[in-house]
Amino acid sequence: MNMKDIIKRNRELQASLNTHNEKVYENMVVYIRLNSLSERATEETLLEILEHLVIGQQNGKMAEEIFGSDLKAYCDDVLVNLPKETKALQFMNMLYFNTLIFMWMFIPKTIGEIIGLFYPAFSEDRISLLPFLISWPFTWIVIWAVLKAIKNSVYGSKGWIALGVSTFVIGTISYVLTDQIFKDIWTVPMNLLISISITCLLFTLQYAFKKYSTHLETKISYS
């Protein structure tokens, strides 16, 4: 079963849960995902937990009757048995996330160049590299802070939406502000062709890194 099938099956089963069991399961999902390393093994394990929960619910049981009253302890036991990431997978995931961040930071610049075809004021002949280098670690700090907030709360699946929105909004704002401050410092040539080429390159790289990361995940899962 590939990842798409696992996710699809997970959604189908989760739809059959009652309100209480669904909330408990969502919180277990967040906790396990935030503390695990191997994505594929994690999703396979979460599906097994969900199947167990659905069977229990069909027999009139609530989540606490199936997993115990200390759900955190149960999740910790699950995490102990999950395979760990290899150094190669950790490196590949780091490349993927960093490339993804730079891509999202660069997309507004590309949009500006496209708008510049009709409104020249949006187009730039040169751009500063400093805003990208400053926004990059700042965005990682935002991601770490939101992840910590999700881990220490009961936000459930909504926490992931908060992570995505917060990262994009704060990352974009930090870039716009630093772009104004360091506009004429450490600049390089820029036009629509260069901007589109860089965006396409970053998109291709992050896609390739993610595909290879998934390949390494599969090897860990079946080893």
Give short descriptive properties of this protein.
223 residues, mainly alpha, two-stranded antiparallel ribbon, 9 helices, 2 strands, 77% helix
Q: How would you explain this protein's 3D organization?
A:
With 223 residues, the protein is an all-alpha fold. Helices cover 77% and strands 3% of the residues. The protein contains 9 helices and 2 strands. It has helices spanning 3-14, 19-35, 39-58, 63-67, 71-80, 87-116, 130-151, 158-181, 192-222, and strands at residues 126-128, 187-189. Strands 1-2 form a two-stranded antiparallel ribbon. The longest helix is centred in the C-terminal third of the chain and has 31 residues, at 192-222. The chain is elongated and about 65 Å long. The two termini are 16 Å apart. The model is unreliable at 153-157 (pLDDT under 50).
The gist of it:
The chain is mainly α and 223 residues long. The chain has 9 helices and 2 strands.
Q: Quick check: average pLDDT?
A: 79
Structural class call reads mainly alpha
What is the first-to-last residue Cα distance?
16 Å
Please tell me what the overall shape is.
elongated
- Tell me the radius of gyration: 21 Å
Number of helices: 9
Helix proportion of residues, in percent?
Answer: over 70%
Taking pLDDT < 50 over at least 5 consecutive residues as the criterion, the unreliable ranges are 153-157
